[in-house]
C-alpha cells in the first residue's frame, strides 16, 4: 500500500530569514542543479538514449549480445553453461536485466501522461512507503526499500499514482541511492514547479548484506529537500514526521 496523506503545512507563516518568499532566489548552496532533461532520461549516456529509440530488431540484437556476455561470465566463474540447470540461464538473465533496467526506455513526459491538474490546493501532499527496487551501479546487485514523496502545491497537483511511477522510472536504472533520491525530487519540481518538494528514502543494499562488511540489518537513509522544504524548518519537520509515521 502507498497511502497518500494531505496535511496542513506552514504556508501561512510570515517570511523570515529561514523562510524566504516563493519568488526569492535560494542561496547558491541551496539551489540544486536541474539535470532532468526534456526526455526525462537524466544524465543519459549515448547508449541509453539509443536503447529507448531502438527498433525491435535492435532490441533483439542487444538481448542476444547480453546473453552471450552472461555465458562468458558463467564460464569465468568456473561453471559449465551447457549443463542442464544453466543451459537457458544466459537468455533468462539477459531478459531479467532488461526488465530490471526498463527505466532507460521510459521518459518523464510519457510517465506523467498528462496527469497534471489545476487545483486550488496549497497544503502538503505526501505519498509514502512506495516500494522501490534498483541495481547498484557499483556492484550490479540490488538495493530495495521504500520512498516517501511530498510536495507543497502551487495551484497544480499530480495524479497520485504518478509519484510512484516517477520513483519506479528512475529506480529501474543502474543507480546509487543518493542520486535516485535527488532525481525523484527534481523531476517533480520540473513537472509541477511547486512551492517545495521533499523525498525520504530508506533502503537495504545487498552489496553490504551479501558481501563486504556483511551487515544484514543495516539500512541506508537519504533525503533531498527543495524549495520551502529546504528553507523552512517547520515544513521540513512536518514532512519528516508524516513520512516516518
UniProtKB/TrEMBL annotation:
<keyword id="KW-0342">GTP-binding</keyword>
<keyword id="KW-0378">Hydrolase</keyword>
<keyword id="KW-0547">Nucleotide-binding</keyword>
<dbReference type="InterPro" id="IPR001474">
    <property type="entry name" value="GTP_CycHdrlase_I"/>
</dbReference>
<comment type="similarity">
    <text>Belongs to the GTP cyclohydrolase I family.</text>
</comment>
<dbReference type="GO" id="GO:0006729">
    <property type="term" value="P:tetrahydrobiopterin biosynthetic process"/>
</dbReference>
<feature type="region of interest" description="Disordered">
    <location>
        <begin position="1"/>
        <end position="59"/>
    </location>
</feature>
<dbReference type="GO" id="GO:0003934">
    <property type="term" value="F:GTP cyclohydrolase I activity"/>
</dbReference>
<dbReference type="GO" id="GO:0046656">
    <property type="term" value="P:folic acid biosynthetic process"/>
</dbReference>
<dbReference type="InterPro" id="IPR020602">
    <property type="entry name" value="GTP_CycHdrlase_I_dom"/>
</dbReference>
<comment type="function">
    <text>GTP cyclohydrolase 1 is the first enzyme in the biosynthetic pathway leading to folic acid.</text>
</comment>
<protein>
    <recommendedName>
        <fullName>GTP cyclohydrolase 1</fullName>
        <ecNumber>3.5.4.16</ecNumber>
    </recommendedName>
</protein>
<dbReference type="GO" id="GO:0005737">
    <property type="term" value="C:cytoplasm"/>
</dbReference>
<dbReference type="GO" id="GO:0005525">
    <property type="term" value="F:GTP binding"/>
</dbReference>
<feature type="domain" description="GTP cyclohydrolase I">
    <location>
        <begin position="67"/>
        <end position="243"/>
    </location>
</feature>
<dbReference type="InterPro" id="IPR043134">
    <property type="entry name" value="GTP-CH-I_N"/>
</dbReference>
<keyword id="KW-0289">Folate biosynthesis</keyword>
<dbReference type="GO" id="GO:0046654">
    <property type="term" value="P:tetrahydrofolate biosynthetic process"/>
</dbReference>
<comment type="pathway">
    <text>Cofactor biosynthesis; 7,8-dihydroneopterin triphosphate biosynthesis; 7,8-dihydroneopterin triphosphate from GTP: step 1/1.</text>
</comment>
<dbReference type="Pfam" id="PF01227">
    <property type="entry name" value="GTP_cyclohydroI"/>
</dbReference>
<dbReference type="InterPro" id="IPR018234">
    <property type="entry name" value="GTP_CycHdrlase_I_CS"/>
</dbReference>
<feature type="compositionally biased region" description="Polar residues">
    <location>
        <begin position="1"/>
        <end position="13"/>
    </location>
</feature>
<dbReference type="InterPro" id="IPR043133">
    <property type="entry name" value="GTP-CH-I_C/QueF"/>
</dbReference>
<dbReference type="GO" id="GO:0008270">
    <property type="term" value="F:zinc ion binding"/>
</dbReference>
Amino acid at each position: 500500500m502507498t497511502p497518500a496523506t494531505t496535511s496542513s503545512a506552514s504556508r501561512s507563516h510570515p517570511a523570515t530569514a529561514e523562510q524566504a518568499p516563493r519568488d526569492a532566489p535560494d542561496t547558491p548552496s541551496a539551489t540544486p542543479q536541474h539535470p532532468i532533461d526534456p526526455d526525462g532520461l537524466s544524465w543519459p549516456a549515448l547508449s541509453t538514449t539509443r536503447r529507448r529509440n531502438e527498433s525491435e530488431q535492435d532490441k533483439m540484437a542487444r538481448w542476444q549480445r547480453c546473453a552471450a556476455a552472461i555465458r562468458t561470465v558463467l564460464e569465468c566463474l568456473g561453471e559449465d553453461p551447457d549443463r542442464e540447470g544453466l543451459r537457458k540461464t544466459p537468455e533468462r538473465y539477459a531478459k531479467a536485466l532488461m526488465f530490471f533496467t526498463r527505466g532507460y526506455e521510459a521518459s518523464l513526459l510519457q510517465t506523467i501522461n498528462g496527469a497534471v491538474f489545476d487545483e486550488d490546493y496549497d497544503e502538503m501532499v505526501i505519498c509514502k512507503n512506495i516500494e522501490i527496487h534498483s541495481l547498484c551501479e557499483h556492484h550490479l546487485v540490488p538495493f530495495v526499500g521504500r520512498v516517501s514523496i511530498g510536495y507543497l502545491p502551487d495551484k497544480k497537483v499530480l495524479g497520485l499514482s504518478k509519484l510512484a511511477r516517477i520513483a519506479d522510472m528512475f529506480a529501474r536504472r543502474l543507480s546509487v541511492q543518493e542520486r535516485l533520491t535527488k532525481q525523484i525530487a527534481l523531476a517533480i519540481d520540473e513537472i509541477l514547479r511547486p512551492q517545495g518538494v521533499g523525498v525520504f528514502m530508506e533502503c537495504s543494499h545487498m552489496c553490504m548484506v551479501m558481501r563486504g562488511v556483511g551487515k544484514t540489518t543495516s539500512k541506508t537513509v537519504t533525503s533531498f529537500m527543495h524549495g520551502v522544504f529546504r528553507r523552512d524548518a517547520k515544513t521540513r519537520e512536518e514532512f519528516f514526521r508524516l513520512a516516518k509515521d
